[in-house]
Amino acid sequence: MTLRTERLVLRQPSAAHTQAVVAFFGSERARFVGGPMDTGKAWRAFASFAGHWTLRGFGSFVAETASDARPVALVGPWFPGDWPEREIGWSLLAAQDEGQGYATEAARACLAHAFGPLGWDTAVSYIHKDNHASCAVAERLGARLEPKTAAPGADDLVYRHTAPGVQP
Asked: pTM of the prediction?
């Protein structure tokens, strides 16, 4: 499965993405998603993204730049077995890609995919309360903060995305 935007190609995770994604999970950049992790845990975390596609029939994509196929983000639909709701999540892999609008662009395409072919009428984004850049992405996407909605982590905020034409 592949989605395209003006500047990005979103692909199902593959072995070609392993180095970039494992490096992300091993870095301080992953502090809001369980990192930094040692190499083994980082590899297993990435494998869970690939396996999600098999178990759920959908999953997060690796967003690559259309110009040179450089992996820049993990983004997309996500619904682990113990989470209260389906999520659209995003993580930029490297600091050099901050401020470029990649997370917003890719997440917007993933929301269209979730609300279109996947048939969702709502989704959430679980964001650590200290991840201000990610909160700003959710707000740019039009998501509403729901302070009383359950989240998988005690420090997570819940932002609600609603399909076009559905009353919030």
From this structure: 0.96
